[in-house]
Specification:
By secondary structure, the protein is an alpha/beta fold. The chain has one domain: L-arginine/glycine Amidinotransferase, Chain A (5-stranded Propeller), CATH 3.75.10.10. It is about 25% helix and about 20% strand. The relative contact order is 0.18. The structure holds arginine. Arginine binds next to loops.
């Protein structure tokens, strides 16, 4: 009994009963997916891609979300925007307000207005972005706090915009490894309720500069860290409802750590979408109305 209490106090292995929170997400079918330009080190336009396979893999993710009871909403994919499948980059939503994306690279530029149109016609107040930012790719809500990435894509100015729009604590974290160019490739939000509402995360320490690593250690002393193998299949690019964590099926070490902590990992193979430098989370934008 005392052992259980101790385990609960430290939120340690197995003793914790994880609670699933209902999620509403936006996805975009990869009907036009291919790799025709290179804006991150994962992309090799000279290598062939298989759009039909990408669609099948994406449909598997869609079915998993449906099976978990999520509400999944869809935005129409537009021809000529092969990266539009990575819906996480389409904006950031919280409290019924959608902060629009403004992409770093011209190739993705038109996605910003396309997603803003969708938000407008689906019940959101839209705030047009001034600074370059790539939406939930770089902004992660953990409990009441927003973790915000910079270094490759989103400008630090967008973090100030977030502060003004939402009035929440926004913690700037600096990414330094080009392979982990969006915050959602280097941090996974595991839950938003543990540790008295601060939530918990998993992350790849070497993706961050020293100062940011220190901030993460201070904020999340109990965070899960992943190894290079799991990071190399974008294992951290996962989506959790607080109990079920949908991850790359090849991230075996991460899967084990999640089980030890009482989460239920669910593996999915998005190998084709990995050719564009994205995984589970990239294909998922959380809608918070
Ligand atoms: N090819 C896309 C890009 O480089 C991949 C985006 C991945 N999305 C994400 N949320 N990490 O912009």
């Amino acid at each position: 009994m005392r052992q259980v209490a101790a385990a609960l106090a430290s939120e340690g292995p197995a003793a914790v009963e994880r609670v699933a929170v209902h999620k509403t997400v936006l996805m975009c079918r990869p009907d036009h997916f291919t790799v025709s330009y290179r804006i991150n080190p994962w992309m090799h336009p000279e290598k062939p891609t298989d759009t039909a396979l990408a669609v099948r893999q994406w449909e598997e993710l869609y079915r998993i979300y449906e099976g978990l009871g999520f509400d999944v909403e869809l935005i129409d994919p537009l021809p000529g925007l092969p990266d539009m499948v990575y819906a996480a980059n389409g904006g950031f939503t919280l409290d019924g307000i959608a902060y629009g994306a403004r992409f770093q690279y011209d190739e993705r530029g038109p996605e910003g207005p396309a997603y803003m149109d969708w938000f407008r016609s689906h019940g959101f107040e839209v705030v047009e972005p001034v600074s370059i930012n790539e939406g939930e790719g770089d902004f992660l809500l953990v409990g009441e706090r927003i973790l915000a990435g910079t270094g490759f894509r989103s400008d630090a100015g967008s973090h100030d915009e977030l502060r003004r729009i939402y009035g929440r604590e926004v913690v700037t974290l600096t990414l330094i490894d080009p392979a982990f160019y969006h915050l959602d490739t280097a941090i996974a939000v595991l839950d938003t309720v543990s540790h008295a509402g601060a939530g918990n995360i998993a992350y790849l320490p070497k993706a961050f500069d020293e100062a940011s690593q220190q901030i993460i250690r201070d904020l999340y002393p109990d965070a899960v860290t992943v190894n290079d193998d799991d990071a190399a299949v974008l294992g951290l690019n996962s989506f959790s409802d607080g109990k079920n964590v949908v991850i790359a099926s090849r991230a075996v070490g991460f899967e084990e750590s999640l089980r030890e902590r009482g989460y239920t990992p669910i593996g999915v193979d998005l190998s084709e979408l990995l050719l564009g430098g994205g995984g589970v989370k990239c294909c998922t934008l959380e809608l918070r109305r």
